Amino acid sequence: EAQVTQNPRYLITVTGKKLTVTCSQNMNHEYMSWYRQDPGLGLRQIYYSMNVEVTDKGDVPEGYKVSRKEKRNFPLILESPSPNQTSLYFCASSLSAGGLGNEQFFGPGTRLTVL
Amino acid sequence: SQQGEEDPQALSIQEGENATMNCSYKTSINNLQWYRQNSGRGLVHLILIRSNEREKHSGRLRVTLDTSKKSSSLLITASRAADTASYFCATTGGNNRLAFGKGNQVVVIP
Lengths: 115, 110
Description:
The complex is a heterodimer. By secondary structure, chain A is mainly β. Chain A has strands at residues 4-7, 10-13, 19-25, 31-38, 42-51, 54-57, 65-66, 76-78, 87-94, 105-106, 110-114. Chain A is globular. Chain B is mainly beta. Chain B has no helices and 11 strands. In chain B, strands 2, 4, 5, 9, 10 and 11 form a 6-stranded mixed beta sheet that branches. Chain B is globular. Classes of the chains: A mainly beta, B mainly beta.
């Protein structure tokens, strides 16, 4: 089944404790991205990747890191989480960045709480 | 950057009625997409309309695009309780980045 998976789905952590949220897609998509969703603010892009070893900042990259060592995986790293990073996070992938192939396939979401 | 802006923000209708949502954007686009999100879950792609298209249909969905007014509308005909969700528009501009609006909550009352 074609899908985007994220782990963990739920996470409660404390300020400053490094964490990684994994994202994996099995559709051989080139483009992957991370979003955070907050009430009243909609979806905001954190980072995106056009292909392996190619990543770039989105609209709200502060406090986050990503890597794209393999085509299928795009982990999101919070080196020192803070309470303002409490949010619902989504990973998404698409065949390409633009044009007709950029319909996004979303993962199920990771609800992160930073105390 | 946020580009799409849906209007109205919340809509409550009876089952069987039609639901219409609007989306406006500020800069030129390559395409515009609509997504649905059931509470707290991942977004699901509904339909994509290219900048040179004016109208597109998919099942009970009808999307229009007016590039001169920089706006789009999503019509759901004969709504069902299962259509209760949030609906987002998203635009792709020249930089090939996708920008989402804040979402439009639709409640269909059985």
